Amino acid sequence: MVIWTIAKTTVGEAMRKKVLNVCLIVAVAMIVLALSFTQLGFQRDMTIIKSLGLFVILLAGFIISLLLSVSLIPNEVDRRTIYTILSKPVTRYEFVVGKFLGGLITLFINIALMGVVFIIMITVKAHFSTATIGIPASQAGAGAAEAVSGSIAPQAFDPSLILGVIMIYFQFVLLSAVVMFFSVFLAPTVNFFASAAVYVVGSAASVWQTMASGSSQAALWVKALYRVIHTVVPNFEYFNIQNILIHPQQEVRSMGLYVTESIIYAVLFTVVLMTIAVLLFEKKEV
Amino acid sequence: MALAIEIEGLTKRFKNPFGGELTAVDNLDLEVAEGEIFGFLGPNGAGKTTTIKVLLGLLFPTEGRAKVLGKPAGDIEVKKRISYLPESPYFYEHMSARELLRFYSDLFRIRSADGRKRIDQLLERVGLTDAGDKPLRQYSKGMLQRAGIAQALLNDPDLIFLDEPTSGLDPIAHADICNLILDLKAQGKTVFVSSHQLADIEMIGDRVAILVNGKLAMKGEVRELLTTKQVEVIADSVSEAAANQVRPLVDECELHGGRLTAYLQGTALGQVIDLLTRAGASLVSINPRRRTLEKLFVETVRGGR
C-alpha cells in the first residue's frame, strides 16, 4: 500500500513536468508529421514512416526515461520532501521501489500515448492509401499489394507494431533500473551521462561479443575486458526488433518466444539492479 | 521519569571525497523526558538539524547511540509514534493540503475512513479548512507551515520534532503555533523544538539545551537557568543624590529622568528600600531578576567559541 501511495504521487508529479511534456508533444508531432511523407511509392513510404515512427518513440522514450529516473530520488532530497516521508513508518525499500514504480508507470503512459498515436496513424495511412488506389483495406491481400508496390500487402492494422512499442518500453524499464541504481551513489548530472553511456554500450552488445570471441585479433586482456562488458552491461540490443517489424519479409522463427524471453531478461536484470539499489539505499544518509 | 529521547556520546562526522572531515555533533549526551517541551538551541551550523536527523533515522551516528521512545533511532515501530516538521517544509506543489494529508495518512497506514475524519479535524485545527482544496503552490509561507504542522499531527504522535516551526511567520500564525505546542504539552505529548526564536522557547519551553560547534554548552530547566539571585528594584522621583547613596549597596544601577533601576542582592533589599523611601522616591516594582534566554544564549555561545 505504501509503495503504491508513493508510486501514485510520483506519477502525479512526473506527469506535470514540463520538460517531459514537451518531449512527448514533440514526439507525437513528429509521428504525425511523418505521415505526410509520400515520395517513393506506398510500400517504401510505409517502411520509412514505420521506421521513423519507431525511432521517434525510441528516442523520446530514451530521453523521457533518462530525465525522469535521474531526478526521482535526488529531487526528493534537494526539496527535503524525503525527510517527511522517511520519518514516517516507511522503509527505505518501500520508498525506492515506490519511486521506481511511479517512474515506470509514467514511462508507460508516455510510451503508450506515442505508441497509440503511431499505430492509429499507420493504420489510417494504410487505409486511405489502399482506398485511394481502389483496394478495400479489408481485402488488401498479397495480390493486391503486389499490384500496388510489387512487394507485400499493406495492412489496415499491423499488430506486430505493438510488439515493437512493448519492446521499446521494456528496454527503458531496464534503462530506468540502471539510472535508479546509479542515482543511489552518483550525482544527477554524472548519473545522466553514466546511464546514457551504459545504454550506448549496451546497444552495441553484439560488437563486444564479437570482440571477445576467439576470432578477434585483440590481446587476451582486451578480450577479457570485452567479455566483462558484454556480461555486466545490460544488453539493450535484444530489444531492437524494429528491422524485423519494418521488413516483415524477414523470417523470424518465433517472434512471440523471442519477445517473451527479452521481457524476462529485462525484468530479471531490473530486479537484480533494484535489489542492489535498495541495499545501497538502506545505508545511505539523506 | 520516563524518557522520550536518550542520547549517549553521540558523534556525527561527515567526510568529503578528499578525505576532509567535519564533526557536526561531538560526544553529545542528552535526555528528554516524556511530556516536556524541550528547546534545542544553537547558532547556525551548531549541529541541531544533524542531531534531529539522527533521531529520525535519516542519518546514522558515527559514534554513540540514540534512543527514541525506548528504541533505537530509526526503528519503524517508533516512527508510528513520532512526527517531524522540517525547517521551511516543501511539499508536492501540485497537491492540495487535503491531498497532501491523505498522502501522509496513507504512509501512516491510517484507514481511509478514519483518515478522512482526522484530515478534516486537522485542517480545522490549523485553520486551513477553507483553503484545504487549493493547490499548495498558491499557499503563503504561513499556510505551508500550517499544512506542515497538520501532517505532523496526523498520527497523534507521542513525540514531535519541530525544526524552526515559527520562523518567518506573521504574529498571528506565530502565536497560533506557540499555542498549539502548549496544547500538545497539555495532552501529554513531548515536543522537541529546534528554534532561533528564543523568546518563544523562553515562554513555552520546560528545558533547553544549547549546542555550540556540535558540543553541548548548556542544558537545564528554563526557569532555573534564567533566574538569578538578584532582585530588580524600580523607583520613580529619585534624585541624583539619592541614587549616589544607593550605588554602593547595589550591583548595577541606572538613573534616567528620575527613574532608577537597580539590581541588587536580596540581603541589601531592606536598606535600599529604606534609603529610597526616606529620599522621597516612589517604588514602582520589586521583582526577582530574570535573565532573558537571549542573553543566556549569547553568553553561552560566545563563551563556547
Oligomer: heterodimer
Q: Please give the radius of gyration of chain A in angstroms.
A: 22 Å
Q: State the distance separating the first and last CA atoms of chain B.
A: 33 Å
Give me the number of helical elements of chain A. 12
Shape of chain A: globular
Q: Structural class, judged by helices and strands of chain B?
A: alpha/beta
Helix content of chain B: 25-40%
Largest sheet of chain A: none
**SS-based structural class of chain A?**
mainly alpha
| Largest beta-sheet characterization of chain B | 6 strands, mixed
- Which stretches of chain A are poorly predicted, pLDDT < 50 over at least 5 residues? 139-153
Percent of residues in β-strands of chain B: 25-35%
Give the helix/strand layout.
The complex is a heterodimer of chains A (286) and B (305).
Chain A: H1 2-14, H2 18-34, H3 42-78, H4 81-86, H5 92-132, H6 142-149, H7 160-183, H8 188-202, H9 205-212, H10 220-232, H11 242-246, H12 255-282
Helix pairs in contact in A: 1-5, 2-3, 2-5, 3-5, 3-7, 3-8, 5-7, 5-12, 7-8, 7-12, 9-10
Chain B: E1 3-15, E2 21-33, E3 37-41, H1 48-56, E4 63-68, E5 71-72, H2 76-79, E6 82-85, H3 97-107, H4 112-125, H5 141-153, E7 159-163, H6 171-186, E8 190-194, H7 198-204, E9 207-212, E10 215-221, H8 222-226, E11 227-236, H9 240-246, E12 252-256, E13 259-265, H10 269-278, E14 282-290, H11 293-304
Parallel strand pairs in B: 3-8, 3-9, 6-7, 7-8
Antiparallel strand pairs in B: 1-2, 1-4, 4-5, 9-10, 11-13, 11-14, 12-13
Written overview of the protein:
The complex is a heterodimer of chains A (286) and B (305). Chain A is 75% helix and 0% strand. Chain A is mainly alpha-helical and 286 residues long. Chain A has one domain (2-283). In chain A, helix 3 (42-78) packs antiparallel against helix 5 (92-132) and helix 9 packs antiparallel against helix 10. Mean pLDDT of chain A is 86; it is low at 139-153. By secondary structure, chain B is α/β, with parallel strands linked by helices. Chain B has 11 helices and 14 strands. Chain B has helices at 48-56, 76-79, 97-107, 112-125, 141-153, 171-186, 198-204, 222-226, 240-246, 269-278, 293-304; strands spanning 3-15, 21-33, 37-41, 63-68, 71-72, 82-85, 159-163, 190-194, 207-212, 215-221, 227-236, 252-256, 259-265, 282-290. Chain B has a 6-stranded mixed β-sheet with strand order 6-7-8-3-9-10, sandwiched between helices. In chain B, strands 2-1-4-5 form a 4-stranded antiparallel β-sheet, with helices on one face. In chain B, strands 12-13-11-14 form a 4-stranded antiparallel β-sheet. In chain B, helix 3 (97-107) crosses helix 4. Classes of the chains: A mainly alpha (286), B alpha/beta (305). At the A-B interface, helix 1 and helix 4 of A face helix 2, strand 6 and helix 3 of B.
